[in-house]
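Hi there,

I know you've been waiting on this one. I reran it after we fixed the sequence typo, so this is the corrected version. Both the input and the resulting structure follow.
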Amino acid sequence: MDHPQVPRFATTLSVVNAWGRAGHFGNARVANERAGFPRHFDHQFGWAADQLSKFAFAGRISGDALMDQHSHLPLQLSIMAANDAVEMRNGMRSADMHKYHQLNQFFAWDPLEAPNLRRCPTCVEEDLARYGVAHWRLHHQWPFTRHCAEHRTPLQQACVRCKKSPFVEKVAIQLAHDDCLLCGHHAHFTPLIDESPVKGPAEAYWSLLDLAFRALKGEALEIRSFDEAALRRRGITMDHVVSKTLTRWNCRSGVELAAKLDIVVQEDNGARKLKNASPLMMKLAVLNCGLEM
């Protein structure tokens, strides 16, 4: 049986589940067991894309396709030097990456996905018409986003009856069009922005969402030309760019900016600090401001 077609940017977990639903339950189970659960289990690490291709999909979805179309790797590579990007890509293709979760997100300590799954109703309708099933999308899961970057549609998250949201760890067989697994209600979900509105200024929010989506698609080529040397030639310092970024987002500190992007902040002896010193979305927010200066 051929693997069913899947949309670009469907999460790897979603693709695995669709494969299992098409009758390849053994392979789907192997994929889930071998790759480990998504983000919240830091002791369970992902595995190489070529191995996932072989053992879960019998080679019908290549390792390159998994990396380029069903992971956040292109987003990360967009801000890396060319040589480093090649090295990271080769490592993800052929060797275990001990801080990478292949199923859904990039590094365990870089919060690229919210704990609850989100969906775009327009994507669901289009998927059902084209594929017969609806997939979770990578760019819907970024913690700060409240809209589909493609359709501008408000994302949905919680069941209208029980008000519960699908948790990443508990959806090994759930796809985006399924009825609520908790109460069985038909697949109707409330808009995410009703309960968790956009936290930043509208212009800054949409600009960051657009840049992140273009980077995921490999289209944000202008990022490559952004570095401190280029800034100095224009008489601008990185401190100036960071200051402008905080002003743009109406923040006084990096911790406040992290909060507006829904990035995890941890307590350390009573002081609040970022779980990671420079999460990817914060880097993109600074890059976005610098590119527009």
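Quick highlight: The CA atoms of residues 112 and 281 lie 8 Å apart.

Best,
R. S.
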